[in-house]
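Could you help me review a protein record that somebody else here produced? Here is the record exactly as it was handed to me:
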Amino acid sequence: SEDRLSLKGFRFDRALIRQMIRIGVPAMLSWLMVNLGFFLINNETQKYGPVVLNGQGIANNITSVCFNLPSSFSSAITTMVSINIGAGQPRNAKRSCFVGCIASAVTAVGVIALIVPLSPYLTILFTHRADVLAIANRALHIYTYSVVGFGVCMAVQGAFIGLGKTVVPMILGILRIWLLRYLFILATEQALQYYAVFWGNLFSNYAAAVISLILIARVKWRSVLR
C-alpha cells in the first residue's frame, strides 16, 4: 500500500491535555468517592443481619430502575447546555437546564405514583418471607419517595458538566453520600436503627437537590473551556 503512517512533526497538545485532566479527574474521583461511601453505608446495614440486608437488597433492586428514569435527563441536559454555550446562547442553555429539571421531577412523580401502590406485588416476586417483605416494602416506599430529589440533583449536575465545571458534581456527590447521608445515618442510628439507612437516602437526596439548585441559580453560564 502507498499509505504510510508518519509521526513526523507530531506533538502532544499540552493545553488540551490539561483541559482533559481538569475535566476527567474530578469525574473519576466523584465515582470513586461515591462508591466508597456506598460501601461504608452497606457496612452499617450489615450488622443488623441477613433479614435487613435481604430486605434492603430487594428494595435496591427495584428502585435502581426508578432512579435511572429521572436521572437519564442528566445526559440530555449536558448535551443541550454544551451545544448552546458553544453556540453563544447562554439563555437557551439555562432554559434547557431548568426544563430538564422539571421533566426529571415530573417523571419521578410518575414513578412514585406507579411503584408505591405496586410495592407489595413487586417485593413478593423476590421472597415470601414475611419478615423480609416487611422491611423491603418499607424501604421501597422511602427509597421511591427520594427519587424526585435524586433526579433533580442529577439533572443539575448534568448542566455543570455541560459547562465543563466537573468539580461541582464531584463536590455534590461527596456531599450527598458522605456528609448528608452517612453523617445522618451515624447521628440517627441509635434512634432509628436500620431505618436510619433508608431515611438517610431520602434526606440526602432532597438536601442535595436544594443545594444543587442554589448553586445552579448562581452560576455564570459560560464554559470554563477555552
User: Anything to note?
Assistant: The chain has a mean pLDDT of 88. Helices lie at 14-46, 50-71, 73-86, 90-123, 130-145, 147-162, 167-192, 195-218. The chain has one domain: 50-218.
